[in-house]
From TrEMBL:
GO terms for molecular function: RNA binding; zinc ion binding. This is Uncharacterized protein. Residues 270-319 are annotated as: Disordered. GO terms for biological process: mRNA splicing, via spliceosome. PANTHER family: U2 SNRNP AUXILIARY FACTOR, SMALL SUBUNIT (PTHR12620). It comes from Bombyx mori (Silk moth).
Length: 319
């Protein structure tokens, strides 16, 4: 009898514990459902608020771009620091570039918007890429891509690109680098007189294609062009040569945007390249084939090349 009662009590206790566990799980499930419901409502509210803020931002940006507002949206007035609190990188502060990139131990500050646009490595040319790397290419080949050839190509690039960027407003500075260092080589800086013009150019041209290359624009701060540009480069007296971290720039056609000139003294040169050479697009395109040379032109050019090679070899023997 006692064993039977103990067995019944044990069964009742198990049943009680089972009921309590079931009630506990039910309460926990109800609490979890309530928590999820509250969380979903919060997320929905946050999403609606973000959509509202984004819509307000677009309206403010549109008003700013249309000239109805003097100030840009406050959401755009911020600076991104790569290493907050660290010492400022001297070279980045002056040139908006650094050989170490964002891995630099010092701080780089990126403005959200500014009057100056930077297109990294935008101008590319065989002579520019290899003018310092004579070990990898035969001297006869490099003779055909001397600085004159590189500059001639630059003039076409200058007229092409300047004309396109001028569609968005007055440009007060336009500089293209011919440095050897890859973080500076071919960098193109465009400074607008009006902030909204720079924003419009960025919105329309960023990620578009030109000459088979995708344009990647970013805003940057150049506080002083004289401090950014190597002062000895123009006189060919830069003792750092290929290792210089200041801007070695091409001379613009007609000295346009020269630092010695006032902005109103600058004038736009006539476009030299024909319309068919335009290569701006939203997707990559193949290069337009160049005009085929006549046999006479080809023979004349071959004679010139042979003479240049002979002259170069005679010079090497003398040395």
């Amino acid at each position: 009898m006692d064993n039977w009662e103990k067995l019944q009590q044990y069964k009742e206790r198990l049943l009680q514990e089972k009921m309590e566990q079931k009630i506990k799980l039910t309460l926990e499930w109800e609490a979890e459902k309530e928590r999820r419901k509250i969380e979903e409502e919060k997320l929905k509210q946050i999403k609606e608020e973000n959509m509202k803020k984004h819509q307000e931002f677009l309206e403010n940006l549109q008003n700013f771009m249309a000239g109805d507002s003097c100030e840009p949206p406050k959401e755009l007035n911020y600076v991104c620091d790569t290493r907050p609190g660290a010492e400022m990188c001297t070279f980045f502060s002056k040139t908006a570039t650094c050989r170490f990139g964002d891995q630099c131990s010092r701080n780089h500050q990126y403005p959200s918007i500014s009057n100056v646009l930077l297109a990294k490595n935008f101008y590319a040319h065989f002579g520019l890429d290899n003018m310092f790397e004579n070990n990898e290419y035969d001297a006869d080949i490099m003779l055909e891509y001397d600085e004159n050839e590189t500059y001639k190509e630059f003039e076409e690039f200058f007229c092409d690109v300047l004309t396109e960027f001028e569609k968005f407003g007055k440009i007060v500075q336009f500089k293209v680098c011919k440095n050897y260092e890859k973080h500076l080589r071919g960098n193109t800086y465009i400074e607008y007189a009006d902030l909204r013009c720079a924003v419009a150019a960025y919105r329309f041209l960023n990620s578009r294609w030109y000459g088979g290359r995708q344009l990647s624009l970013q805003f940057c701060n150049i506080r002083s062009w004289r401090n950014a540009i190597c002062g000895l480069q123009a006189k060919q007296r830069c003792h750092k040569g290929r290792s210089c971290n200041f801007l070695h720039i091409f001379r613009n056609p007609n000295n346009l945007f020269s630092l010695q000139k006032l902005p109103e003294e600058n004038y736009i040169p006539r476009r030299r390249t024909p319309p068919r050479s335009w290569r701006w697009s939203e997707s990559p395109e193949t290069e337009i084939p160049k005009r085929t040379k006549s046999s006479r032109e080809a023979n004349d050019e071959e004679k010139k090349n042979r003479e240049r090679r002979r002259s170069h070899k005679r010079k090497l023997r003398k040395d």
